[in-house]
Amino acid sequence: MPLTVISATEHGTGPEMEEIWAGLQDDLAALSDYSRHVDSPATGHYVHLENPQLVIDEIVTLFARL
């Protein structure tokens, strides 16, 4: 099943927790052999509000890969 994981990079939790979070996001992307993991630099939890164009572009890319 196609899967795209879009990850925020700024949670305000400190570098150690940010690294743990990034690893968990990698684990999530690994659930599919047909996945893509994209970081959204300088965004917090609400990537869809802070970087909507990235979300739109990734949705278009996901459907193009089908």
From TrEMBL:
Q: Which InterPro entries match?
A: AB_hydrolase_fold (IPR029058)
Supply the Gene3D superfamilies for this chain. alpha/beta hydrolase
Domain of life of the organism encoding this protein: Bacteria
UniProt protein name: Pimeloyl-ACP methyl ester carboxylesterase
